[in-house]
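Need residues for this backbone.
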């Protein structure tokens, strides 16, 4: 494989997904936003015009001057993983990748014109080969989806919010955008976790990697099943006060909590959607231009509605109960004012139960 193409297949036999569209693995909320943006006329032109305002050139120079660029002679094992991930997801141009000295385990994909992948030394030291492969696949998934563009904008806006904090209205306006971008970005992280699984094709390694991000390199002291039980306890535990605290804890974050990510990825790995992709049935990139914005938003709305309906969180259960009660009351009012449920066959109070019945 070269920087612009492929010369050989990966060493390990993994399923490859030629021409796969990022829509195949994107979370519904992430997918609906991206489909809408891709369909906007002049969208690319606007963001290229913005590139002069964003610190992309500065970031590139910073990583080039003060990090180690991954290649055939530097971190060759990471370079092999990177090429492998690009081969599996059919990303023709291999992004540049850097290793940066940092005690915090982290990885990111940024850039407007061309994505740059950055991993920290702490992350490289923390994860084994298969766990790291999932992380590299995660970042290549970001690149394929175009997430790096919005991540760069989020970094810019966050820095801007700090600079205009002394302007009350200006800070409120910027922070509103930052909050909305963070909510989208949290969903994009779930999308990239799925891409990492498609690349690594080892759900246990993906689980281990997320567990290590939470608890460090102490696998002999941790258990994946117990870690997933934490996610279930977090979702359903507490009362309405805890539900509000969960929301407040989440708002400043760009990433979902690690237990939640693990549970979401485990659920997706067992879904029919994932199995269809592994069987070779997935949307192709060539079909992206025909993707329906309205269909994507309907899928996103349906996902959120289903999440509220099935959630064990006390606040979401209350919202679901209220929504269900409102729907039931609306049905009763409709029947009363339209005459439905009266007349022949209706319950007249004489004890007959034949004919029309009330639908709950």
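Answer:
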């Amino acid at each position: 494989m070269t920087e612009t193409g492929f010369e050989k297949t990966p060493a390990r036999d993994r399923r490859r997904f030629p021409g796969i569209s990022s829509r195949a693995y994107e979370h519904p909320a992430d997918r609906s936003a991206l489909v809408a943006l891709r369909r906007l006329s002049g969208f690319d032109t606007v963001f290229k015009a913005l590139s002069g305002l964003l610190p992309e050139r500065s970031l590139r120079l910073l990583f080039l001057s003060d990090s180690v660029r991954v290649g055939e002679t530097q971190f060759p094992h990471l370079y092999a993983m990177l090429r492998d991930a690009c081969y599996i997801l059919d990303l023709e141009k291999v992004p540049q990748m850097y290793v940066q000295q940092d005690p915090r385990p982290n990885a990111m994909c940024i850039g407007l014109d061309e994505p740059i992948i950055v991993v920290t030394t702490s992350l490289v030291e923390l994860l084994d080969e298969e766990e790291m492969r999932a992380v590299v696949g995660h970042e290549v998934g970001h690149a394929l989806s175009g997430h790096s563009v919005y991540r760069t904008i989020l970094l810019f806006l966050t820095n801007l919010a700090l600079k205009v904090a002394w302007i009350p209205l200006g800070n409120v306006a910027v922070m509103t955008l930052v909050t909305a971008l963070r909510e989208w970005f949290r969903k994009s992280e779930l999308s990239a976790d799925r891409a990492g699984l498609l690349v690594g094709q080892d759900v246990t390694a993906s689980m281990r990697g997320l567990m290590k991000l939470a608890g460090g390199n102490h696998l002999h002291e941790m258990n994946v099943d117990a870690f997933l039980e934490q996610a279930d306890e977090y979702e359903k535990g507490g009362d309405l006060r805890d539900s509000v605290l969960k929301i407040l804890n989440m708002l400043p974050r760009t990433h979902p909590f690690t237990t939640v990510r693990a549970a979401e990825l485990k659920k997706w790995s067992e879904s029919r959607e994932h199995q269809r992709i592994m069987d070779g049935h997935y949307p192709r990139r060539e079909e992206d231009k025909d993707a329906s914005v309205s269909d994507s938003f309907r899928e996103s709305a349906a996902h959120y509605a289903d999440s509220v309906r099935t959630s064990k969180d006390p606040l979401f259960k209350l919202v679901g109960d209220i929504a269900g009660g409102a729907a039931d009351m609306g049905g009763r009012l409709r029947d009363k004012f339209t005459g439905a449920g009266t007349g022949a066959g209706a319950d007249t109070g004489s004890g007959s139960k034949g004919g029309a019945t009330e639908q709950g």
